[in-house]
Amino acid sequence: MVSTFKYDTQNASAYNLFGDKVNSDNAINGLKIADTLIEIYLFHRKFQTKEYKESCNRVWSDE
Q1: Taking residues 24-38, what's their average pLDDT?
Q2: Which of 3, 12, 25, 58 has its Cα between 20 and 30 A from that of 32?
Q3: C-alpha closest to that of 25 among 33, 17, 35
């Protein structure tokens, strides 16, 4: 089955993807909240990697 989805799902937000498909203000606000939560999750996920944690524990020097 070939997808006819016209949006770039890797770089799009839930609001941009589904905002035109909902009718109520509550649904639009829910999509905006979902976008915020996704951004928070992705931000924290980036900084919870083992490599990042180890880089934070390195001793800094002036050299």
Answers
A1: 89
A2: 3
A3: 33
Alpha-carbon torsion 30, 33, 39, 40, what sign? negative
DSSP labels, 2-63:
-----S-TTT--HHHHHGGG--SHHHHHHHHHHHHHHHHHHHHHHTTSHHHHHHHTSPP---
Q: What is the mean pLDDT of residues 50-54?
A: 78
Give this prediction's pTM. 0.56
Distance CA 22, CA 9 (A): 18
